Amino acid sequence: MMSKLKLQLGNSGLPLVTVADMAVSNMRYTVDGDDSLGYKIIIESPGAAAQDAYVVRDDGRYKMAAFSVSGETVPEELASLALREIEKDNLAAARKWLDRAREKIHASGGDDPLAGQPFPYFWTKGQDADASAMRIASLVLLPSKELKGTYLTALNQARLAAKTELDRGRLTMVLAHAYSAQERWMEMLPVAEELTKAFPTSVRAFDLAVTAYSRLSRFDDWDRLVKAGIDKQPDELAYSRSLAQLAAYRGEFEKSREITKGLIDKGQATASDLNLYAWYALVLPGPIEQDAIDTAVRANDLTKNANFAILHTLGCVYAQAGKGSQARELLLKAMDSLKLDEPNSELWFGFGLIAEQYGEYEAAASMYSRMEKPKVEYPGTSYVLAQQHLGAHNLAKDSPKSASR
After folding, report:
1. Would the pLDDT of 398 be above 60?
2. What is the per-residue pLDDT for 2?
3. pLDDT at 71
4. Running DSSP on this structure, what letter comes out for residue 11?
5. What ranges in 105-149 are assigned the alpha helix state H?
6. 343 CB-near residues (< 8 Å, 6+ apart)
7. Is residue 370 within 8 Å of residue 386, measured between CB atoms?
8. What is the pTM of this model?
9. 286-405 has which CATH code?
10. How many whole angstroms from its chain centre is CA 8?
């Protein structure tokens, strides 16, 4: 939380002490609440969006419970405060925390019955509810990684006792997200499949099932699900993108690019689609084609030269194509976009590619060795490609061609 605030202040280019002194002297505070209900403090500064601080009194001291920075909201952090007050039978305070969260989260429309945040469907500001309804709303609001133990049991009981199919579906979705956040894939699978059966046209339910299938390497089940979705909604682009993703998981990167190329040719591709199309060119044998470079440039233009993943892709594509100076410039821009003091794993891969192009194999190997293996494996990651380059580099060092260079 505070790291985000520090990053935002650091972007001004002024010393943090100076920025803090100028900001504090011009701030205006609006305070709502008391010691029993907790406090919401609205902080207004000239030229900046209003920011909210949530404060509680605990053991005789005031503590910051949550803080929103420049439009970013963190109302999920208020769920634990509401649950704590429910346990203390201070329902007025619990209601207040839920109301404060509800001010930040609004119901979203759309054709998908499971789209958007589920919390607004379980809490209305000013609602006169009992402890049971408050607890359910708080559990729905709680961050997915914290929804475990007795909290998870209580949510599942509420799900099974739901009065409507839609309420049960939304609570099932919350349960699926909890299992996903905690990487409990075997427990997530039947819950996600229940959602796809109850809401066969819901893309949200489809995405949850795909997550479970991909983590469990159940590619045939994934294939059947996506084809069933296409039969029901042939114009839904989410299914085409999922087919491309499935092909990549199966190691069929040419097929994945062909599917994505169909979206590009029809003018239906997003910047993310363009980025993946260009990135997977790095996986395929042979030189980088101009088409991959042009597609990466287009993705970068769409994101105004400000998206780390796309800057990284374009830099790597340039590096593999032998355009070292352009690659280096883009990788440094990618580094700046995240305000990094030193390269992360993805950037080490890009700089390693540049080193290879200059024949500096030992330097490239050193850079690749600095990369960390991701906790979750995805197809065609920087780490996977780096391992392939390391293997090729070791062979190259021992080959007659390498010795003659």
Report:
1. no
2. 46
3. 55
4. T
5. 131-141
6. 331, 335, 351
7. no
8. 0.86
9. 1.25.40
10. 20
